[in-house]
Amino acid sequence: MVKDNRKLQSHWSNVSKIIERWLEERRELLAKYCDLTEVIDVSDNAVKHVGELQEFCELMVDYISVGHFEIFDQLHKEGQLFEDASGLDKEPNLLEKIQTTTEYILDFNDKYLSSHDLDARIIDLASLGEIFAQRFGLEDQLIDVLHSSHVGTLLGEKELI
After folding, report:
1. How many structural domains is the chain composed of?
2. From CA 17, how far away is CA 63, in angstroms rounded?
3. pLDDT at 160
4. With the C-alpha atoms ordered 66, 68, 69, 72, is the resulting torsion angle positive or negative?
5. Can you give the CATH number for the domain in which 77 is found?
6. What is the rounded end-to-end Cα distance, in angstroms, of the chain?
């Protein structure tokens, strides 16, 4: 039993570190997003703005990739380890909604890999901001139901050890 408790604690701690790193990437993404939304006149430095937009797109795709290929998988494994039927029941609905935002983000990325229409960028960034708000809320819910909710279990187990 003690060995199982340590395994749960170790897994939870590792996932916490991964999530913290990912949330730091989210903050960086949001900072770049804010920088891009502040630019209104791109006529003077169009090449510079295209480069900044492409850097932003790379960061954005990296962020969503880490979510889909690392974070969500680790959260699912944690739900299984903790035998969290309630959290695992909520997961598919949240992931489906997150997937919808992923598709929008990838469409945005594809558009700006091939287009230098910086006039449309302002409108597209505004829409992207709404998608980010939706997505980040859903990601936070997923973290809450499959990770943060297990803190109480770990605290209770530490008292038993």
Report:
1. 1
2. 16
3. 36
4. positive
5. 1.20.120
6. 9
Please provide the size of the chain in residues. Answer: 161
Q: Is the pTM of this model over 0.90?
A: no
pLDDT digit string, tens, across residues 72-114 = 999 999 999 999 999 999 999 999 999 999 999 999 999 988 7
DSSP codes joined into one string, 23-38: HHHHHHHHHHHHHHHH
| Chain segment 17-53, per-residue pLDDT in tens | 999 999 999 999 999 999 988 876 555 555 667 788 8
**Alpha carbons 135 and 39: distance in angstroms, whole number:** 24
Burial class (CB in 10 A: 0-12, 13-18, 19+), 143: buried
Tokens of 94: 């949240």
Phi, psi torsion values for 113, nearest 5 degrees: -75, -30
Question: Two tokens at 95?
Answer: 């992931």
Domain hosting 104: range is: 2-160
